[in-house]
Design brief:
alpha+beta; Immunoglobulin-like; 2 domains; three-stranded antiparallel sheet; 2 helices
């Protein structure tokens, strides 16, 4: 559930006014079936427009970034723990943030591109012994973050045991 800001409420009122105008215009139709069709169509179009607009607005009003983070691999549990801080850089309250984590095995940096080194020729043909070279997951990192403040987080994720030299890519999505 997203947290509504003042801008969200203004947008909602605007869409309700648009629906009211379309409903008023459709009531002037003489044929009852056409009038009902116009009302239902107006409602559906305005509702879809409102939902899409709120999602887009939510993306641009809820801004945060990962300030510092460190990783620690636990070989006994075949997991990695990521500890860091998330800062709300926007002007609005954030309900929660989800951390999209992509872990890539054996990354080598050559000529401006990341090269994924496979462990054997069988990996190229996805044979029976194929092992993935990357791992992706989403984890809820924090909740209830006020504007201009930061909160620390700790996430523990299980990773495949065959990862030798993992590289971590973090992407933060807030609502």
């Amino acid at each position: 559930m997203m947290h509504f800001t003042v801008v969200h409420w203004i947008l909602t009122v605007m869409f309700i006014m648009i629906f009211g105008l379309l409903a008023y215009l459709s009531l002037s139709e003489q044929n009852k079936k056409t009038r009902l069709t116009l009302l239902i169509t107006s409602f559906v179009v305005v509702l879809i427009g409102l939902i899409v607009s709120l999602l887009i607005l939510d993306k641009y009003t809820k801004k945060a970034k990962v300030v510092n983070y460190s990783t620690h691999r636990n070989y006994n549990k075949e997991s990695v723990s990521i500890v860091g801080r998330i800062k709300n850089t926007g002007k609005f309250y954030i309900s929660y943030c989800t951390l999209d984590l992509r872990i890539v095995n054996k990354v080598k940096y050559k000529g401006g591109k990341f090269m994924y080194k496979t462990s054997s020729a069988s990996d190229l043909f996805k044979s029976k012994g194929y092992k993935k070279n990357f791992f992706t997951t989403s984890v809820r990192a924090i909740e209830d973050l006020k504007p201009k403040l930061s909160k620390s987080f700790r996430v523990v994720v299980k990773i495949p045991s065959h990862f030798d030299n993992p590289k971590y890519f973090l992407h933060l999505v807030c609502h």
